[in-house]
From TrEMBL:
The active site is at residues 38, 261. Catalyzes the interconversion of L-alanine and D-alanine. May also act on other amino acids. Its cofactor is pyridoxal 5'-phosphate. This is Alanine racemase. Keywords: Isomerase, Pyridoxal phosphate. InterPro entries: Ala_racemase, Ala_racemase/Decarboxylase_C, Ala_racemase_C, Ala_racemase_N, Ala_racemase_pyridoxalP-BS, PLP-binding_barrel. The keyword Transferase does not apply.
C-alpha cells in the first residue's frame, strides 16, 4: 500500500516485542497478561499490534467497548478478548455470540447473560467489576454487593471466571487500602467454596511498582507501548511510536507580520516560517499553539500561531537551509533532540496516554518488523 501522506506514525513492532518480553520476565510465568489495546491500541492500531502482543507473552486482549472487541474478533477468531467496560443490556448478545469475556457488575446483567447462554448452549465468561474507591464502574464495596456476587457465582449458565478492581493511584496508603478492601471482599466470596480463576487489580504503573499486588492477572496498557510512569521500580521498556511529518512550504516574512488565526503570533524579526501538514484532525493537539515544538535536522523549532485542524506553522529562522520535504519529528523517543511522548504531552497540556490515543485514523501507520517496513496502513483508503 502507498503511504499517500507525509504525516504518519511509525510503529516499531520489534520494540513492542521486547517490551512484552520484559513485562513477561518481570511478572513471571504465573501471572496472566491481559494486554490493553483500547483506543485503537493507544493509537498504535489495535489490529496490527495484536499478534506481536499475543506471540510474545500476551494471554488476552483487553478493550473498553463492545465495538473494539468486535473489530478484533473480525480478524482474530481464537484470541481471548476481554471487554473491561460496560455493555448495554440490548447488546450483550453480541458479547455471547463472539465469546467475549464480559465485565459485569449487576445481577440483572448476569441473568441476561445466563439466559443468552442457555439459548445458545454456551456459558458466557464474565469478570465481576468490584469498586474499591475509584467510583467509576463496579459493585460498591459492601456486604450487600458481596451477597449478590455470591448469588451470581451460583448461576449455572455463567462462567464467573474473574473479579477485578482498579487503582486510583492516589498514593501508597490509598493503593494499599484499595488492595486490602479488594482482597477482603474476594475472601468473603471465596469462603463459600467458590474460587475465581483470575483476581486482578493492576494496570501498568501498579504492576511495576507493586508486584506484590499482581495476583493472577495484570492489565497493562502504557508499558506495552514503552511509556514509563512507574516510580519505585524500573524495567527497560522503549517507546514504540514516532509521529512524523514533512515540511510542505517555506516562506520569508517581514517583522510585524502575523501568522495563523487572529494573528495571535506576530514576527518580532524578519522570519522564516515553514508549514507542516499536520493538525488537530490528525490528533496533534491544538494546545500546541503556544508552547509546542518539533524537531527537524536535529534542532527544535517552535510552533507559531494557532495550530489549525490540518496544518501548523513553525519558526525555522534559526535553522538555516530548511527546505520543502525536510523530515519533521513531532514526537519521537527523545533521541536526536526529539520530544519524547512524555515531553510532548506536557507541552500539549495532556498526558502520555491521551496524546497517542488521540492520533486519528486520518494518519497512516507504518509498521516496522525485523528492522524493515512490514506494512503500511492507510485506514481511509484501505480495501474493504
Ligand atoms: C485503560 C485501563 C488499563 C490500562 O491502563 P494503563 O495505565 O495504560 O496500563 C487497565 N485497566 C483498566 C480497567 C483500564 O481501563
Amino acid at each position: 500500500m502507498e503511504l499517500l501522506r507525509d504525516t504518519y506514525v511509525v510503529i516499531n513492532l520489534d520494540r513492542m516485542k521486547e517490551n512484552m518480553k520484559l513485562i513477561r520476565d518481570y511478572v513471571g510465568k504465573d501471572v496472566a497478561i491481559a494486554a490493553v489495546v483500547k483506543g485503537n491500541g493507544y493509537g498504535h492500531g489495535a489490529l496490527d499490534i495484536a499478534e506481536t502482543i499475543m506471540e510474545n507473552g500476551g494471554d488476552y486482549l483487553a478493550v473498553a467497548t463492545l465495538t473494539e472487541a468486535l473489530e478484533l474478533r473480525k480478524r482474530f477468531k481464537e484470541y481471548g478478548i476481554f471487554i473491561m467496560g460496560y455493555t448495554p443490556d440490548e447488546y450483550l448478545r453480541h458479547s455471547v455470540d463472539n465469546d467475549f469475556i464480559q465485565c459485569i457488575f449487576s445481577k440483572r446483567q448476569a441473568e441476561i447473560l445466563a439466559e443468552l447462554g442457555s439459548e445458545s448452549n454456551k456459558r458466557p465468561i464474565v469478570h465481576i467489576k468490584y469498586d474499591t474507591g475509584f467510583n467509576r464502574l463496579g459493585y460498591r464495596d459492601c456486604q450487600e454487593s458481596i451477597d449478590e456476587i455470591i448469588e451470581i457465582t451460583k448461576m449455572e449458565n455463567l462462567d464467573v471466571q474473574g473479579i477485578f478492581s482498579h487503582f486510583a493511584l492516589a498514593g501508597d496508603p490509598a493503593n494499599r487500602k484499595q488492595f486490602n478492601d479488594f482482597m477482603n471482599a474476594v475472601e468473603k466470596i471465596e469462603e463459600t467454596g467458590f474460587k475465581f480463576r483470575y483476581k486482578h487489580i493492576c494496570d501498568s504503573i501498579s504492576a511495576i511498582d507493586y508486584p506484590e499486588f499482581n495476583l493472577d492477572m495484570i492489565r497493562p496498557g502504557a508499558i506495552i507501548y514503552g511509556l514509563k510512569s512507574f516510580r519505585k521500580n524500573d524495567i527497560d521498556i522503549k517507546q514504540v511510536l514516532t509521529f512524523k511529518t514533512k515540511v510542505y512550504h517555506v516562506k520569508e516574512i517581514k517583522k510585524g507580520e502575523g501568522v495563523s488565526y487572529n494573528f495571535k503570533w506576530k514576527a518580532e524579526r524578519d522570519s522564516v516560517i515553514a508549514t507542516l501538514p499536520v493538525g488537530y484532525s490528525d490528533g496533534y493537539p491544538r494546545n500546541m499553539t503556544e508552547e509546542g515544538m518539533v524537531t527537524l535536522r536535529g534542532e527544535r523549532a517552535p510552533i507559531v500561531g494557532v495550530a489549525c485542524m490540518d496544518q501548523c506553522m513553525i519558526d525555522v529562522t534559526d535553522i538555516p537551509g530548511i527546505q520543502v520535504g525536510d523530515e519533521v519529528v513531532l514526537y519521537g523517543d527523545g533521541s536526536n533532540n526529539t520530544l519524547s511522548i512524555e515531553e510532548a504531552s506536557k507541552l500539549g497540556k495532556t498526558n502520555k496516554n491521551e496524546l497517542i490515543a488521540r492520533i486519528t485514523r486520518r494518519t497512516p501507520r507504518v509498521y516496522i518488523k525485523d528492522d524493515r517496513v512490514y506494512k503500511i496502513l492507510n485506514y481511509l483508503t484501505e480495501e474493504i
